[in-house]
Amino acid sequence: MKVAVRSVSYSYDEEPVLGGVSLDLLEGGTTVVIGPSGSGKSTLLRLLAGLLHPTAGAVLFDGRDMAGVPTEKREVGVVFQSYALFPHLTVRENIAFGLTTSRNRQPGHEVERRVAEAAGLLALEALLDRRPGELSGGEQQRVAVARAIAPRPALLLLDEPLSALDARLRRTVRADLACLLAGLGTTVLYVTHDQEEALLLADHLVVLHRGQVVQEGAPLDLYRRPADPFVASFLGEANLLPVHRKDGRPGTALGPLDLPAAEGQQLLVRPEDLIVDPGGIPGTVSESRGLGPYDRVVLRLAGGEEVLAHLAPGAALEVGADLRVALRPGAGHLL
Amino acid sequence: MRVAPRRVARTTGIAWTVATALALLAPILVTVWGAFSRSEFYGQRSEGAPVQGTADLFRYVLGIWGEALLHSAGLVAAVVPLALLLGAPAAYAFRRRPFPGARWLESAALAPLAIPGIALAVALIETAGGTPRFLLLVAGHLAYTVPLVLKTVGNALSGFDPGLEAAAKSLGATPGETVRRVVLPLLVPSLLLAALLVFAVSWGEFNVSFLLATPLLQTFPAALYSTYTTNSFPVAAAATIIFLLPVVPALVAIQALGGEEFHRGLPA
User: Fold this and answer.
1) Which of A80, A106, A145 to mutate to test the interface with B (most CBs of B within 10 A)?
2) I need a surface site. Which of A82, A254, B114, B162 has the fewest CB within 10 A?
3) Partner residues linked to A58 by β-bridges
4) Exposed, middle or buried by CB within 10 Å (0-12, 13-18, 19+), for A149?
5) ipTM, interface predicted TM-score of the complex
6) Could you list the pLDDT tens digit for every one of the 335 residues in chain A?
């Protein structure tokens, strides 16, 4: 389904939450909306679900203005942050719920078939007769997804569906979810504040900040070439080095730049863009921590600036050690 | 010898609880004893009343107060469903569709609990004196029982995630289906509890019932009062036991529902 948001504003108690957001969801793909808490991302999701109504602007499903169409008449499935599983119903009854309401009532054998199908996709076959209260957090999360996809909604909305899980579980569930969403071929809106989740799941990434879309595009593009310092630091760790002119050439604390840069601009250097180089800029290690896949090193450069570097593991750098680093060729992005 | 302070605290706690329970139960135990024992302690008998501990005594009480018993039963049969029908939707509106001033109004709705029965009875007669007495009685009882429903059902509503209703809608349930398939099933324990509380309060209500009673329309608690003032202790005791018969199972059920049962099915 083609889903479009046109100049949508929403205020709560006179407080603007969304200020004129326009957005097209990727048809048949996953659009991830990422933003800090209070950015209005969950509000945007609830507006698409019809659980809230825009104070201005329009939400269009296949070109049709959805104003006045209640949630139960929209072909949406929602995975809530709290899961909102019906505690008095079994897993089976929870999944079957959306196949037995007036919007989409299915004959008995079809209900059974679709429940089995959704349960299979989320590995819930063994849990069908349990109640939500008897399930672990990860299992509840899978039931919530199964319940939302069983009626085959034209638009699937996921509101921070992994935020209630612990970090380890989140990693595995995230990967499973990515496979599942890719296989469904449904138009998906996924709301999160977690950048790893966003980069992994998004076909199209939208950054929301204070009720405005600040940038949208392909996820790696946004990571590599963010539009402003907010996007740069929200999507990952970022060194932002001020540009200054020296001997008529632009440069930063990491040395002269080959890019046409002006004073007042900043150079974005991701920590993984710094490499150890005997011919590089000298600095002193002020923090060092081996994290397994890489060493997280904070370096104080000669000019006093501190930069964060993710260096190849095993260097076992001590605080106070001297180290020369350079920018990986081709890396760096001007803001 | 040193005694662990925790053990002292525990023993004191248990002793306190048992003492409180006994103090509350003592009058009932004495009443039961009075109705069944053939002790000469309660020597005086009113004219024509049978001897203690016999079925005749209970038949005698039913004979004189059977009609009052029926009136009370009829009153309870009207008050319990009406209190639920008025209170439960109001509780839902207060908690789920809050409007400006809803909190104040909800608190104000509890006020009748603090109004003396005589004031309420006089107010009812003053404003609607021409109404059939039975309806006035129902109105008086509702004033005392609807607040209980508001509170019980309101608390249950606060205890479950409003996201459940949003989830039902997102799965295509109309408002009617949402209430029928999600809200009501989750409220069953609280509705049962409310019904039992309303029953217990309405069945035992004395003030309003006594003041609104007419010679032809008396409730059982009002009748009990005349029994206490005019009959012997054994007759009064027998009448009290008849009065308590339906209350005890209701209280036991309230206890059961107020415990674990009440929370089962609600999200952890």
Assistant:
1) A80
2) B114
3) A6
4) buried
5) 0.84
6) 999 999 999 998 888 899 889 999 999 999 999 999 889 999 999 999 999 999 999 999 999 999 989 999 999 999 999 999 999 999 999 999 999 998 889 898 999 999 999 999 888 999 999 999 999 988 999 999 999 999 999 999 999 998 888 888 888 888 888 888 888 889 999 999 999 899 999 999 999 999 999 999 999 999 999 999 999 999 999 999 888 887 778 888 887 877 777 777 888 999 999 988 888 888 889 888 888 888 899 989 887 888 999 988 876 678 888 888 888 887 888 88
Contact list, B96 vs chain A (CB under 8 Å): none
Q: Does B171 touch chain A (CB under 8 A)?
A: yes
Task: Give SS3 for A276.
Answer: strand
B160 touches chain A (CB under 8 A): yes
Inter-axis angle of helices B55-96 and B133-159, nearest 10: 50
Minimal Cα–Cα distance from A144 to chain B, Å? 10
Interchain proximity B173–A102, CB inside 8 Å: yes
Contact A77 B169 (CB under 8 A): no
Note whether B167 contacts A86, CB cutoff 8 Å: yes
- A80 neighbourhood in chain B, CB within 8 Å: 163, 166-167
